[in-house]
Amino acid sequence: MGAEEDDSPFEPVEQKDDYIDELTGLKEPESAMMFSSSDAVLTIEDPNLHPMGKAIAIFVLFICMLGFLNGLDYASAEDGLVRPDEFVYRLSLSAPDETATFRGAVFDHEGMPLENATVYVSWDEEGVWNYSEMLTGESGEFEFERLDPGLARVDIIVERDGKRDVLANRVLLSPPAMIEPIGFTEIDFTVPSQEAFAAAPCSNGADECEIRNIDLTPTQMEHPLMDPGAAGIYTTIGLGFMGLALIAAGFTIWALKSGSVLVLRTAAGLSFFGMGHYYSACMFGLVALGLTFAIPRPRVPLTDPRHQD
Question: According to CATH, what is the number of the domain 95-222?
């Protein structure tokens, strides 16, 4: 009996290597797959302040100290490099003419108001002496308007018992402040007793004189009389300088802890307004502000242990 024939209706199909290869026309690589890694490292901006930034922060703290000392000088009206009268006098140099009002009252040595006492105000205007005078009222009050700000001589003239007693003072008339168009100066004067004037030497060297003088201007050359309110404004400015210095120092410490260049730049800008003696804080503050723009910000690996929780 012969070999048995295959009556199956299906013909044998040649086995392909990969059905996907047949569909795509791409042959799967026969070599083993290999994985490779690059040298790229994820980095972030270093949150810590660069050493250059830390040095600038120390510099800003020094500037803050200069500003604080300047404010302390202003707040100490009786001593320091700058006095209230010097400050007000500098302002008066640039003030418009006839913008000062001068008022007050005149009392005797017992504190009683002196009526009809003459208040004589004179001031130097470019080599020419101008003057204005008036009599005091029932309460010893007086008020001058449209005077020039700055230094002036004020003579209080009182006639009694046939004598004319003259009390001379050096006064600083306040200029306008801030947005005010007029500067106000208010000072009360106390005229010494007749015995004090009798003991004063006569100007002509005689034993007795009809016009008796007590001249206080030599003792007021460095620090003339001035309005107490002007001294108060001067002290307030000093407190403002001290406050700015403390705020700038606070921002500087914050920058050291947070590493923020922007905060350090803000501190440098605030220290600029501390002024300082002879504008030292202004100059140094401007330098520090410029240096903050040169602070580098390096990047550190994300896997740095300093940034791990």
Answer: 2.60.40.10
